[in-house]
Amino acid sequence: MVLGFEARLETRRDHRDMTNREKADRLLTEAGQIAEGIPGDFKRGYFNLVIRRSQEVVELALKALFCEMGVEYPKIHDVAPLFRKVVVKKGLDIEEGFLNWLEEVSSNLASKRAPAFYLEAEYEKEEAKEAMDTAIKVLDFAKKFAFKLEG
């Protein structure tokens, strides 16, 4: 069996590239879908899952904003430092304190993602609650900021 570029697979005829806005909308929608499930996981005591899902929400929300700004993002989990650089370079109005907080929480959740996934660490209720609240706050920010960027 041959894989990769040697396979010469035809692209689907109905396939077209997404615009940045479409991709941003899709990423925000997926982040929202994930966020909707987090409170149920929290209630059931799946705290590691809450950590992982919260990290995904933060990552997808920020990547949606990159798309909205027309900036290609790296395929890494913690994109907040790059987000800060882009915001500063473009002269966008986001408070310094919020950017500091965003970098801190994104880094924190990204560092917990793999240990939570592989059960190398057990997270407690308080950490999961904080992660859930963070995810909701970042998603709300991203939705509002995306709307501002569109206008």
Distance between the termini: 50 Å
Would you identify the regions where 5 or more consecutive residues have pLDDT less than 50? Answer: 1-9
Rg (C-alpha, Å):
17 Å
- How many separate helices? 5
Overall shape: it is globular
Pairing-aware structural class of the strands and helices? mainly alpha
Provide the β-strand percentage band: under 5%
Helix-strand sequence: HHHHH
Q: Summarize the amount of helix as a percent range.
A: over 70%
For the largest beta-sheet, the strand count, sense and barrel status come to: none
Write a structural description:
This protein has 5 helices and no strands. With 151 residues, it is mostly helical. Helix 2 packs parallel to helix 5 (125-150). The radius of gyration is 17 Å and the shape is globular. It starts with 19 loop residues before the first helix and ends with a helix.
Question: What is the topological layout?
Answer:
Blueprint: H1 20-43, H2 47-69, H3 80-90, H4 96-117, H5 125-150
Summary, kept brief:
The protein contains five helices and no strands. It has helices spanning 20-43, 47-69, 80-90, 96-117, 125-150.
